[in-house]
Amino acid sequence: MKHYLAIMGSMVLLLLTTIPAFSQDDSRQRERNEILKQLTDLRAVIDSLKALNNQDESIESLEERMEKRFTDLENKINNAVRGTSPIIFNPRTTAFINFAARGDNKTAFNEDGSVEISNRPFLRSTELDFRAPVDPYAEAVAILSVEDEAGQGFALDPEEVYGLIKRLPLLESAPMGMKLKVGKFRAPFGVSNRLHLHDLPWTTRPLVISKLLGTEHGDFFESGFNPIGADFDFFLPNPIPYTTLEMNIDIVKSGDLGMSGGVGGRQPAWLAHLTLSADLMNEHIVILGASGYAERGRPSVSLLGLDATYKWAPSEQRSSRSAVVGGEIFWGRRTAIDSLQAEQVVRPRGWYGFAQVQLSYWLYLGIRYDWAQDPLESLPVTRSLAAYASYYTTEFLRFRIGYEHRTSDNDVVNGLNTAVLEINFVFGSHPTEPYWVNR
């Protein structure tokens, strides 16, 4: 009898330690159900042992049956585990394709004025997003982008490649929810800079992002600040009820900010971002932020920013309606030495504001106004008024049409009217919904 109970215990233990693995993959649900059925059958066999003296079946026959069942069940579990393990440990992969076609009333050029970009289609970017846990303490993220260089071909760019440490091995915890990001990443300066091109609520980047934070080919293409360094993200004690206070402190490579002009000062540069967020009555979300960047040496660069976002997302009974209002304002200072060894100081500024309403489950309408100075060309001012309509079928397919009118101190840009058709295709693992979407 002890021999039978030992076999029973081994089989039950094997079942119980295997079943949680199957819960990580819905495609293995049938195998899991079959194993649970086998467990039910084993309980029936145990009951039959209790009445063994009243049956004609011999001890040897029962042992043979149980050994065979144990072997069959063990093989079935091993086969299912081998089919599940690659899914658990392989990276979660998502691909993003951003297509845009533009029509202009006059000739438009890229950022440095060397390439015409008006009246033509562009495959603006193709991104491959890989994410996977590497051990219980960390995960790795690699976002590789093939970007259009203003119609002059394509270039492979590691948009974000970093490791994320979520808790400390020695403490087995994360004090204040601290997370450490090491590698290349979109810097936490404001709101828009953190978003990838396919997740923007507009057809183009705000002018202040491309002018002050950086771009290679202009705001119609990918822009922003994604340095190499380390980001410390943690929560601060907060006395205000129903709110959270989050802090980012970054140590990054200097010279990569747009205002730096490709010339770095002393290493490293420092960046900080403070976020206060509140969720009121599960309908009103308010997010306020302050950012700062400092790069010492020659040139020395400093940039301050404030951002605000309000989202109204009503209850599920009216889930086809929402509204988002927000904006950012930047103040910069750049000190450099000219060819005559004289010190030059420029103080560029810029801001944008936008509003968006959701008219149905799929349709979003919005407007945006930009005002920005160019810090590297005697501070000319460019203004832009844009309107757009987004048809968000699912997180895997997004259509958008937009219209922009620009006025500028730069005659090449002044009076430019542009219509844009944008389509985003997404396939692979389920992506995160952009913050402006209400589903």
Keywords:
single chain; 439 residues; alpha+beta; Porin; 4 helices; globular
Structural write-up:
The chain contains four helices and 17 strands. The termini are far apart. Helix 1 (2-22) packs antiparallel against helix 2 and helix 1 packs parallel to helix 3. The model is unreliable at 1-27 and 82-86 (pLDDT under 50). The chain has two domains: 2-88; 93-428, Porin (Beta Barrel). The chain has helices at 2-22, 29-50, 59-89, 207-213, and strands at residues 92-104, 120-135, 138-148, 154-165, 179-184, 228-235, 243-252, 269-280, 284-295, 300-312, 322-337, 343-346, 349-358, 363-373, 381-394, 397-408, 417-428. It is globular and about 100 Å long. 18% of the residues lie in helices and 44% in strands. It has 439 residues and is of the alpha+beta class. The protein has a 16-stranded antiparallel β-barrel with strand order 1-2-3-4-5-6-7-8-9-10-11-13-14-15-16-17.
Provide a short characterization of the protein structure.
The chain has helices at residues 2-22, 29-50, 59-89, 207-213; strands at residues 92-104, 120-135, 138-148, 154-165, 179-184, 228-235, 243-252, 269-280, 284-295, 300-312, 322-337, 343-346, 349-358, 363-373, 381-394, 397-408, 417-428. The protein is α+β, with helices and mostly antiparallel strands and 439 residues long. It folds into 2 domains: 2-88; 93-428, Porin.
